[in-house]
Design goal:
By secondary structure, the protein is an alpha/beta fold. It contains 12 helices and 6 strands.
């Protein structure tokens, strides 16, 4: 599944791949493994002309335009591996592919999107795709800025959500956990959509689950983070990862919350909405 941090052709191949994936996933009991395999093959095909370097935990694919940024990306990726892995108490037994795209258009086209995206990083099915730091990173202290504001911690957190839950999660949950982890490690947080006196509003969790990408993204991302912070503050940070483990056993999100927090889901939602009503900037 997608995890995103914002800021004739490959499209045809991608659409064909999606059709194949749907058929394969219907017939398979291990959809996560097959999804990762198929997407991995697509990445290998579409980046056949890219350069590649390897670190202990990553394979980094890039064009010559980004050669100067590769050492910085590699260092930030390994740092993210250590810090995020420690927080999740999880280590991977394989390397992860990172693809560096020189511009927004080429990264969007890797998904068959027709328009440019403002994303600086996207996690999908075992691989991480990032926008060239040269497209958004300016000024001095670029290594520090890339580590703090760049996509590596956020996207690697998405990967571990996928890993522990065995692909059994929805968009609002992975975005909430990824933002929570990123804020805890780097201090980065997206702009508050209710700053400067803008009135507070929020969505029902059912709306986040069914229509996350169609909602006001600033509010949807903000609320997803609020869920994670609410659980961590009221029940303890470990319960965030306990929920992932229950999801990994095939439980629904309501069941995973009930099992981990020892509260029925209806009461959890009511308490969370009350928490939001008392939100302070």
């Amino acid at each position: 599944m997608l995890g995103i941090k914002f800021l004739g052709s490959a499209r045809t191949f991608t659409l064909t791949l999606v059709v194949v994936l749907v058929l394969v996933l219907i017939l398979s009991r291990n959809s996560q493994t097959l999804m990762r395999f198929m997407v991995g093959q697509e990445v290998n095909l579409t980046t056949a002309g890219f350069n590649q370097v390897e670190t202990e935990h990553f394979q980094i694919k890039y064009t010559e335009l980004d050669a100067d940024y590769v050492p910085m990306i590699a260092a930030s990726a390994e740092e993210a591996y250590a810090s995020v892995g420690q927080m999740f108490d999880c280590e991977l037994g394989r390397q992860t592919t990172i693809v560096v795209y020189p511009d927004s258009r080429s990264m969007s086209r890797s998904f068959g999107w027709e328009r440019d995206s403002n994303a600086m990083g996207i996690y999908w099915a075992g691989s991480i795709r990032i926008l060239s730091p040269g497209e958004w990173l300016k000024g001095e202290n670029v290594q520090e800025k890339f580590t703090q504001e760049g996509p590596m911690v956020h996207e690697f957190a998405h990967l571990l959500v996928d890993e522990i839950s065995r692909g059994n999660y929805n968009r609002w949950w992975t975005e909430g956990v990824a933002q929570y982890v990123e804020k805890s490690i780097t201090g980065f947080v997206f702009d508050d959509p209710f700053a400067q006196g803008r009135p507070l509003r929020y969505y029902r969790l059912e709306e986040l689950e069914k229509s996350f990408d169609d909602l006001d993204q600033a509010v949807a991302y903000w609320e997803s983070l609020q869920v994670a912070e609410y659980i961590a503050s009221q029940y303890g940070e470990k319960q965030l990862f306990s929920i992932l483990e229950h999801l990994g056993k095939g439980q629904t999100m309501p069941a995973a919350i009930q099992e981990s927090l020892h509260i029925d889901y209806r009461s959890f939602k009511a308490d969370f909405y009350d928490y939001l009503k008392n939100y302070q900037h």
